[in-house]
Amino acid sequence: MSTTKYHREQMNRGFDVEYHDKRLKEIADGTYDFKCKFEIVTGRKYYKVVYNDAGHRSVHCFVDKVTGDVYKSASWNAPAKGVRYNLLNEDSRELCYSRVDWAGGYLYA
Question: Is the pLDDT of residue 54 over 70?
């Protein structure tokens, strides 16, 4: 679940509406402090998007450097089979952006 979706759902349920409204405004203006951090590691064929949470690192996804294809990770060193999105295709990229979340749930086929 995306952070934005989470805060909206909490507001809709009536949980600490003021707090969640403030978080949504911070996300919108770019001042929200996401606890998880991502880094991009350049490999021979792929960009590896690595999730880093207090020193615990895991591969979020792989992006083909030439084609822009996005793959779910199968392991630290290899993508899973099957293209999930293509960042060079406008429709596919927008679909990816609309579904993206920090946990990678949008990468499951």
Answer: no
- What sign has the CA pseudo-torsion 61, 63, 69, 73? negative
What's the pLDDT at 101?
80
Asked if residues 94 and 100 have their Cβ atoms less than 8 Å apart, the reply is no
> What pTM, to 2 d.p., does this model score?
0.69
Distance from C-alpha of 3 to C-alpha of 12, rounded to nearest angstrom: 14
What are the respective helix, strand and coil percentages of the chain, to the nearest 5? 35, 30, 40
- Token pair in block for residue 107: 């990468």
Any idea where the domains of the chain sit in the sequence?
Answer: 1-34, 37-107
DSSP assignment letter at 50: E
- At 94, phi and psi to the nearest 5? -65, -35
**Burial category of 37 from C-beta neighbours within 10 Å (exposed 0-12, middle 13-18, buried 19 and up):** exposed
Which tokens go with 61? 């996804």
